[in-house]
Amino acid sequence: MPRPFHPEGAGQLSVTPSESVRRGAERELEMLESLLALGGLVLLRDSVEWEGRSLLKALIKKSAACGEQVHILGCEVSEEEFREGFDSHVNSRLVYHDLFRDPLNWSKTGEALPEGPLGALRAMCRRTNPGPVTIALDSLSWLLLHLPCTTLCQTLHALSHQDSCPGNSTPVEPVHVLGLLHEELHGPGPVGALSSLAQAEVTLSGAMGQASAHILYRRPRQRPTHQTQWFSILPDFSLDLQRGPPLELQRHADPHTPPVDPTTQLTFNLHLSKEEKEAKDSLTLPFQFSSEKQQALLRPGPSQATSRIFYEPDAYDDLDQEDPDDDLDV
Amino acid sequence: FSLWSGSIWRGKLTLLCDAKTDGSFLVHHFLSFYLKANCKVCFVALIQSFSHYNIVGQKLGVSLTTARERGQLVFLEGLKSSVDVFFRSQEEPHPLQFLREANTGNLQPLFEFVREALKPGDNAEAAWRCPVLLVDDLSVLLSLGVGAVAVLDFIHYCRATVCCELKGNIVTLVHDSGDAEDEENDVLLNGLSHQSHLILRAEGLATGFCRDVHGQLRILWRRPSQLTAQRDRSLTYQYKIQDKSVSFFAKGMSPAVL
């Protein structure tokens, strides 16, 4: 079943305080659906303080609810812990590839996935089902610490572009790849490389106990768009969208106060009347060289107001050029 | 702290970390706490000698010697057994085998030691409650040449075995280098933080040393499950270490200043 595409306007989605609950439910659909609408990689960047696995599970639940099969490459938590909180319908559509119990084959019992993490990742590239599929990588950080960055990026690219297989006559549904990345563990290079592969990037943060997601969409042939959404995740992994940042933050950022006019209450006059303006504009400046001035200088006439200095020396004034201040002790 | 005595607190990784102060009092607390709670404890002690922990344990009301003799405590004394590594033949695996290797591979021998120590034994040992792994501390492994990823893998395997399979707990201490810009240590600390259910962070006071308040303790709950309340995610207390206990109080409420 093709996924309905909600066209997003370019630019900011403003959040006003007067949204109704119905609109809120629509926006919940918009946020998760718009993240899942594009094929390709959705990168979830989390941190120690704001964890991203809950949002990953919310996206998985949404995918499963739309009838997709979800494959999870689980490296960081056990299958039991990952499935916790999902209802049976969602759990039945989940296939958990366990890289948690023995990823490096230390137990040597043959239970571990053969060929290690890279083999498991590559195996996901070979799809047998033509139906829509979501692949969740929990986590990309674990893979990045154990595989070379270039190999991981190449495999991720192959993973998200399975619909363009040569020699395949039937059109294949786009693959959704969800990757969880712990930002603090990696340098800017690998994070930048993964970010450039992503169609959508969600950075998790928050304030005062309320989580927020800053989403960057990179749709093909369109400008990248940003959106910030405050949310909380309920125990059954459905999303509860908040209308804005917590109240404390809202009080500080108020863009609607009008600017104050500083000239209203002065004891002196800063304004000019019409006549004063005219006189000011017609005034010639003393050092502005115009043709009249040039003529006046070339032909000094007797009626010019030249300035002269009249000096009457006092009786005791001694105009000594070499010692005008009379303070040399000679 | 009563949270940990309940039966719901099992299969969890608790990360202790200290920044600009000494967080070892937390290690002593957890050691004595779990021994008193009748748990089987495997203590990988890389920093101090057995007698040091024993002396502090006695002040807190437990005897490590007795616990070791009756099989409740498995104690790996890093300082003493590291010397043994060099005087053994190479075929015999030793938990601290990595000290001998030029290219430090992984900590698999250490993991095998832990798994062997905590595996459920025959009926005689069924008296103990959940198994507990205690490590003091992980930062020193970085100084000994082990890579951060290798230490993370070791804790990963310990989590898979001790927490998930045996439903036990892990408590481990890592130092926060702070401004010292130790990249490997930062990767270790952040990687462990993401794996942890609970982070206890002991910090020195921002204003410096004080006689009556030794530091502050930040408590952060991660990995919210169905059982933990969402709103109590983060708490901060200040503490004072006394001879036989540690007293905690809310910020600014030290009896010395009230």
From TrEMBL, chain A:
Keywords for this protein: Cytoplasm, Nucleus, tRNA processing
GO biological process, one term: tRNA wobble uridine modification
One GO MF term: tRNA binding
InterPro entries: Elp5
Location relative to the cell: Cytoplasm; Nucleus
Name of the featured protein: Elongator complex protein 5
Start-end of Acidic residues biased regions: 314-330
Pfam entry (one): Elong_Iki1
Family assignment from sequence similarity: Belongs to the ELP5 family.
Region (Disordered) residue spans: 1-20, 293-330
A Gene Ontology term for the protein's cellular component: elongator holoenzyme complex
Organism: Equus asinus (Donkey)
Ranges in a coiled coil: none
Metabolic or biological pathway: tRNA modification; 5-methoxycarbonylmethyl-2-thiouridine-tRNA biosynthesis
TrEMBL record, chain B:
GO biological process terms, semicolon-separated: tRNA wobble uridine modification
Main location: cytoplasm
Pathway(s) per entry: tRNA modification; 5-methoxycarbonylmethyl-2-thiouridine-tRNA biosynthesis
Subcellular location: Cytoplasm; Nucleus
Alphabetically ordered keywords of this record: Cytoplasm, Nucleus, tRNA processing
CDD domains the record matches: Elp6
Subunit structure: Component of the elongator complex which consists of ELP1, ELP2, ELP3, ELP4, ELP5 and ELP6.
Protein name: Elongator complex protein 6
Organismal lineage: Eukaryota, Metazoa, Chordata, Craniata, Vertebrata
Gene name as annotated: ELP6
